[in-house]
Amino acid sequence: MTSPRTAVQTLVQHEQSRREMLALAVVGGAGAAFFASAPRADAVPEGSGLGSKKARSFRLTVLGTTDTHGNVLNWDYFKDLEYDDTPHNDIGLAKIATLVKAMRAERGAANTMLLDAGDTIQGTPLAYYYAKVDPITGGSKHPMAKAMNAIGYDAAALGNHEFNYGLDTLRTFESQCDFPLLSANSVDWTSGAPIFKPHVIRTFKTRGSKPVKVGILGLVTPGVAIWDKANVEGQVKFPGIVEQAKVMVPRLKKAGCDLVIVSCHSGARPGSSYGDALPFPENASRQLAEEVAGIDAVLVGHAHEEITQLLVPSKVTPGKDVLLTEPLKWGMRLSVMDFDLEFRQGRWTLAGSSSHVLNANTVPEDPEVADLVGEDHAVVRTYVNSVIGTCTVAMSAATARFEDTAAMDFINHVQADAVKAALAGTPDESLPVLSIAAPFNRDAAIPAGNVTVRDVAGLYIYDNTLLGIRFTGAQVKAYLEYSAAYFKTVSGTGPFAPDAVTGAISPTTGSPIPDYNYDIMGGLDASLAYDIDIAQPVGQRIVNLTYAGQPVDPAAGFVIAINNYRQSGGGGFPGVTTAPVLYNAQVEIRQLLIDWTTEQGVIDPTTFTTYDWKLVSNGQPVVVEGAAEGGRH
């Protein structure tokens, strides 16, 4: 086996070769395109703070990242390969570091600031390893802290995923960062006071004029209260983004801030995945810009969307536009915001603002950042490539969103089996156990033959924990009806392209329903079978619903194995938040899958797969391109 240190050396040598090639490209290729895309430094007006005797104008450049999700290097740990996707994006803070250095060199480091909009410490095996396997609470330093410190962030807002591993891990990460973690609406359960720094003020010197004071406010989506209920209930509350900003922005203005920028982990497209489960919306960045006076720009996060530049007219300050930008996710983009200020009547006034994004695939990784996390990277690669069992036949999740698959049956079997074992000897032990699972990762595949940690982890990419709740047969049907809204209303039997039948527009968010909000339900000791008739309107699609071959009695009792995200209200599924909780041992589902594989030694789909569901149109089976012909993936 290759040692971690050798693996690091190999990785570094490989990267050095790639950097040399990319350095040549800077002269007339991608690098030239990168530098051409940025506004020229010499476009700054005469008398700017960059060098005049008495500044009458000043340009501030604010760089931004968001939703980096534990990505430092351009690496896919689930595939154990350099990251690639259909648009050929690159990822990771090492790429961002190169872009940041170039922008600081061009614009002047003294007039440049770097912010992040949250979701930093969760999302990859690298992040998981330093939260659970070799936790930072035990003394290790988080690779994301190493990288962000080296790049030189000025501040970062908290995202909802910062709370996934509990407050102790988050506080430890905070202590390892050389910059403040901001969250004005993460407040003490009792006092209502922010438990993290709500904002910070940066001062920029000018020549012969007053310094420019910039306030940075951090806000997070209130959905944390639902999604991480087990980690925050009784300790932290999350008031509304707009409501809290209306308290905090006046304080920044009173403190003399000439410019106020909000780093907001909340999407710009209005709506909430949790419906009306909370009085505050999940995605409120646009509303924030419209309704809170004194805000000049919002660095948007959470939605994993690319917003190059969006100017939102203020509803409270006539004639004012608020700048919004979102740099996609995972370090694929760097937002560049430019603010031109003019000194008038003894104070600085914003004269204009604009933004654009830079693509990380145009530059090589920064060697300093890559070297800092090299050993961490090698250790995690060794971990995810450890063999934990074998599989008798390959299982893929590529088609799980439109056909019954062994991969989803595997998740449901392990979840239901764990809940049933936990309920042994309790009054509920005789209830039939069902389970729900969603197709999180279209690329997930467990091969025939040796199975590694990364194979299983790729099937379940989120850090969810397992619960058991009590449902009636009527609630089971209502749950499945809600889930079936994922499919578009289609007549005919096809064949259809997958996108022609999946990803219907959600009435609550106005966006396509994501795969992770489509739940598949299966039974443990007997099959739960149903058809989804996509020719019928939403709410009338579940037909032929049976358990153990018999129609499901609306009054019958069932136990549902369910993840904490869903049970807490994530996705807005009916009945789950008020259902009696029968089991909640805070066991991670991904680890359950890994442990089950390790203990059993062999994954044999014939021992747990059943034909649970299928798509039909007016009772006739629907054919979707890519689906198995007479078999199962």
Characterize the structure shown.
The chain is α/β, with parallel strands linked by helices and 633 residues long. The protein folds into two domains: 10-43 and 60-381, Metallo-dependent phosphatases (Purple Acid Phosphatase, chain A, domain 2), CATH 3.60.21; 386-621, Alpha-Beta Complex (5'-nucleotidase,  domain 2). Helix content is 28%, strand content 25%. The chain has 18 helices and 31 strands. Strands 6-5-4-1-15-16 form a six-stranded mixed β-sheet, with helices on one face. It has a six-stranded mixed β-sheet with strand order 8-9-11-12-14-13, covered by helices on one side. Residues 387-576 form the 5'-Nucleotidase C-terminal domain.
> What is the CATH homologous superfamily assignment of the largest domain?
Metallo-dependent phosphatases
Oligomeric state as shown:
single chain
How many structural domains? Answer: 2
Which residues form runs of ≥5 with pLDDT under 50?
1-52
Q: Do you know the CATH topology of the largest domain? A: Purple Acid Phosphatase, chain A, domain 2
Q: Class by helix and strand content?
A: alpha/beta
- Percent of residues in helices: 25-40%
Rounded to an integer in angstroms, the radius of gyration calculated over CA atoms is 26 Å
Biggest sheet details: 6 strands, mixed
CATH architecture of the largest domain: 4-Layer Sandwich
Tell me the span between the first and last alpha carbons: 32 Å
Number of helical segments? 18
Task: Give the overall silhouette.
Answer: globular
- Overall pLDDT score: 91
Major sheet strand order: 6-5-4-1-15-16
